[in-house]
Amino acid sequence: MIIPDSAKRILDSQALAHLVTLNSDGSSQVTCAWAGVEANEIVFATLFDQRKLRNMRRDPRVTLSFETATVNEMGLTEYLVIKGRARVTEGGAPELLQELARTYLGPEVTFPPMPDPPPGFVTRIEVERLGGLGPWTSGH
Amino acid sequence: MIIPDSAKRILDSQALAHLVTLNSDGSSQVTCAWAGVEANEIVFATLFDQRKLRNMRRDPRVTLSFETATVNEMGLTEYLVIKGRARVTEGGAPELLQELARTYLGPEVTFPPMPDPPPGFVTRIEVERLGGLGPWTSGH
């Protein structure tokens, strides 16, 4: 699906992605990560081959959740939930981390803070459904 | 396991719980909720019988994640991940929501904002393992 502008604003912000992948025993695994949008997909980068990458190669079904800075009239914080399918690609992690660091840390930051970082992995997530609490849900 | 003080401080704060349950097709479902600690278990309340409750009755394995207000020396936001087992109990939701509302909304708030709320459900989560990024992880 096309990511609506209301959700894209959250994805372009400093909001952290809570990324859920599925372990081999069917239980869930969560890590928080920087995320952005490229070509209507959610992207994030990892320098090393972590468990979440192995999980997504085995089962590409992921869910991401993001808190927003908006509080509704009942006092509840709006949040964005995204269901999607992930594919892990090799290389490009330092460049994407540098780009995301401008959003998450500041425009002048150099990241990752090491010489010669490994090429790492970029994960791309095709968005299938939106949920949570906010203008991107149908009942809002 | 006994919840360590470093994690209990997060659970007692205004940090929102990102609660992951498992759907019948094995995919993950995420909702954000208010959470607290009672008798070394994580507790939260729901007025109505939602999908997450049906999910936890079928498969009690849950993961919760919480952002903190602490940023480490690399600029990364610390976050708490909890793996546990949930049990859904009947009744007590309005009382627990009122208690949690004092933390999440303010000491003077009346919540839920309706006359005669239904008894609802209280979910109790036994903590099995901590993860994420913060003083509650072994590598920290």
Could you describe the 3D structure shown?
The first copy, chain A, is an alpha+beta fold and 140 residues long. The first copy, chain A, has one domain: Pnp Oxidase, Chain A. In chain A, 19% of the residues lie in helices and 42% in strands. The first copy, chain A, contains 3 helices and 7 strands. Chain A has helices at 5-11, 51-58, 93-104, and strands at residues 17-22, 28-33, 36-38, 41-46, 61-71, 77-90, 121-133. In chain A, strands 2-1-5-6-7-4-3 form a 7-stranded antiparallel β-sheet. The longest helix of chain A has 12 residues, at 93-104. The relative contact order of chain A is 0.24. The interface between A and B is medium-sized, with 33 and 32 residues.
Name the beta content range of chain A: 35-45%
| Uncertain segments of chain A | none
The coarse silhouette of chain A is globular
Helix count of chain A, per DSSP?
Answer: 3
Rounded to the nearest angstrom, the radius of gyration of chain A is: 15 Å
CATH architecture of chain A: Roll
CATH class of chain A: Mainly Beta
- Structure class of chain A: alpha+beta
Q: H/E series of chain A, N to C? A: HEEEEHEEHE
| CATH third-level topology of chain A | Pnp Oxidase, Chain A
